[in-house]
Amino acid sequence: MIKHNPFNQLGKADHGWLKANFHFSFAHYYNPKRMGFGVLRVINDDLITANSGFPAHPHNNMEIITFVRSGAIHHQDNTGSKGITHAGEVQVMSAGKGIVHSEYNKTNEPLTLYQIWIEPNCRNVMPRWDSKLFPTDYSTNALPLLVSGYEEDKDALFIHQHARIYGGKMKKGTRIHHKITHQAYVLASKGCFELANSDHLITMHKGDGAEVTQTKEIAITAISDCEIVIIDVPHHH
């Protein structure tokens, strides 16, 4: 199954300094049909204006992943971690038993990012933060693995959940086959591509999402140069 969630059907919020698009229910956006996808609870497609951001606020028992699409984000938290994550980089934060953090765009340019929340498979862990730059070349046969809860995936950023997040760019005309372990949520970060399995084919445009279930492999064909994020997560037990 492939279920298409077009950008214009996402939840919306406009706070002036923040323009948000919600793939699932979040804050004031409530849709009983869009409460998450397995252990994937939140995907917010955010635009944060220059010199603004989220002041210090708390979280607990959530794995929070930020995929920076353009610009740069400044992170600081009460464990002493701080850092700047730029476009093409990913940061992860395990909120665990409790963390207080702020996220700011301290540049003069807009910042765009995906904020992804995944429920952890163990509670009250020590809070932690990490970030990493990943290859920015165009992918020809596989999207780079960015985030993983599997110990064998040494090069990926670690989270406390048996999930994997892939992301990368494809040049127009490229076609790749991507294997799925559990079920996958696919994001069109930039450009346009086709997503297909044995019985569905949809065209994804910038900002769209798609739920892929009961499928072990998908084919992705780049209609234009594009950037893609794939979040492979388990079901709720």
How would you describe what is shown here?
This protein is mainly beta and 237 residues long. It has strands at residues 2-5, 11-14, 18-22, 40-48, 52-59, 63-70, 72-77, 82-86, 89-94, 99-105, 111-118, 128-133, 145-148, 157-158, 164-170, 175-179, 183-190, 192-196, 201-205, 209-212, 217-222, 226-233. The chain is globular. The protein has a domain at 9-134: Jelly Rolls (Sandwich). The model has no long low-confidence stretch (mean pLDDT 95).
The CATH class of the domain at 9-134, by name, is Mainly Beta
Structural class: mainly beta
Shape by Cα distribution: globular
CATH superfamily of the domain at 9-134: Jelly Rolls
Helices and strands, in order, run as EEEEEEEEEEEEEEEEEEEEEE
CATH topology of the domain at 9-134, by name, is Jelly Rolls
